[in-house]
Amino acid sequence: MGNKAYNPYENMLSVLDQAAGKLGLARSDYETLRYPERELTVSIPVKMDNGEIKVFEGYRVQHNSSRGPYKGGIRYHQDSNLDEVKALSAWMSFKCAVVNIPYGGAKGGIKVDPRELSRDELIRLTRRYTTRILPIIGPDQDIPAPDVNTNGEVMGWIMDTYSMFKGHSVPGVVTGKPLEIGGSIGRPEATGRGVTIITLQCLKNMGLDADAQTYAIQGMGNVGGTAASIFYETGKKIVAVGDYSGGVYKEDGLNIPEILAFLSDRKNCLKDYQAEGVAHITNDELLTCKCDVLIPAALENQITEENADRIQAKVIVEAANGPTTVEADEILNKKGIIVVPDILANAGGVVVSYFEWVQNIQSMAWDLDEVNKTLEKIMLKAYNDVDNMAKEKNSTMRMGAYMVAINRIVTAGKMRGGPISMA
Ligand code: GLU
């Protein structure tokens, strides 16, 4: 959906320029942030189960390394392309800076619909992709993680392939691994948990009782599903949820555990979910339904100038990366809807990725309490930093978050002697 001309990289640049301007930076102070440091496009030949060879296209883009090694997920999606991955890599740089963890930003992607591949084909695809990006990844260099349609199992295959080439086990090359091979407890739920921490903090700041609000969530994957679960378990009323097939609505609250149990069979999707009092709605109806808190937890370019004006929520918490276009942002701002930006709202995943990486380096394992407490501390500190910046500069939270991030990245770059110090 959305307008045809949408380009996520252009969207990112326009927000970056605006925030840098508000910070009073000259173009030359942040010019480097407008370009990824490295872009790699690879071809991935895969022997399909029927014996045919199919060639897929993959990417790994490294945006900025001023604050540390590159960090960011890998997504498998039929619509993935270089501009999308470039934008996502920049958002990772900003995200890591907002929560102040010592990483730069990167992202990877493969243009593939993983539902059309068998498990064996997916393993071969993942292993070949890993060998293609192998020269530029590593625990001190660039550390991938899960993203849309990838998970711990896929990370295990990447870790194994990388380790085979090195001749020894290198758990720290990826995060989001299964527990048994060096993953962190709490990592699969971390992004969704972070979204709930940030949502509650935002409502508290607005003087609203979180238990008295209604919630709508677009996306029932790892992030949307976990956020829905945590909200449900803590007594919140979720009136609408959606996935790629459509949405469901129930005014007095959906039964989230039942929906997630239904969806746990991968063949099922929401359009086939039936329960008493549950109405089926379109994606557009989900985004514009009567609710207080709207949580887009799917893909980019969902809240656009076509629907922004009809959105009824008071607060939008961006659990997805880049769900709102620049044009929509302006409309929401005029309507007085608070938007908690992606680079703050969904940073919980990469924060616990950081914990995982630290645990790998130290060959230690933290317990769940330590993970969740430290996650909460970091998320709330980031929320405060963003809120203070937004207040100081009289701006939206998105601008506040970008200003915090750009400031940290530009300062780090300067302390290293600046981008032209080699000249
Ligand atoms: N893919 C997640 C994100 O967009 C997590 C990245 C990571 O853990 O490195 O933030």
Structural account:
The chain has helices at 8-23, 27-30, 82-98, 119-133, 152-166, 187-205, 222-233, 256-263, 283-287, 326-335, 342-345, 348-362, 368-392, 397-415, and strands at residues 38-47, 53-64, 70-77, 105-111, 142-146, 214-218, 237-243, 246-249, 279-281, 293-296, 315-317, 338-340. It is α/β, with parallel strands linked by helices. A seven-stranded mixed beta sheet has the order 9-8-7-6-10-11-12, sandwiched between helices. The protein has a five-stranded mixed beta sheet with strand order 1-2-4-3-5. α6 (187-205) crosses α7 (222-233). It is globular. It binds glutamic acid. Glutamic acid is lined by residues 71-73, 95, 145, 147, 175-176, 321, 346, 349-350, 353.
List the helices and strands and how they pair.
Layout (H helix, E strand, L loop, with lengths): L7 H16 L3 H4 L7 E10 L5 E12 L5 E8 L4 H17 L6 E7 L7 H15 L8 E5 L5 H15 L20 H19 L8 E5 L3 H12 L3 E7 L2 E4 L6 H8 L15 E3 L1 H5 L5 E4 L18 E3 L8 H10 L2 E3 L1 H4 L2 H15 L5 H25 L4 H19 L8
Helix pairs in contact: 1-3, 1-14, 3-14, 4-5, 6-7, 6-12, 6-13, 12-13, 13-14
Bound molecules: glutamic acid.
Short description:
It contains 14 helices and 12 strands.
Order of helices and strands: HHEEEHEHEHHEHEEHEHEEHEHHHH
Strand order of the largest sheet: 9-8-7-6-10-11-12
Radius of gyration: 21 Å
Could you tell me how far the N terminus lies from the C terminus, measured between alpha carbons in angstroms?
A: 45 Å
Low-confidence stretches: none
**Overall pLDDT confidence:** 96
Roughly what percent helix? 40-55%
Name the bound molecules.
glutamic acid
| Strand percentage | 15-25%
Oligomer: single chain
How many helical stretches?
14
Record field, number of beta strands: 12
Task: Characterize the largest beta sheet: strand count, sense, and whether it forms a barrel.
Answer: 7 strands, mixed
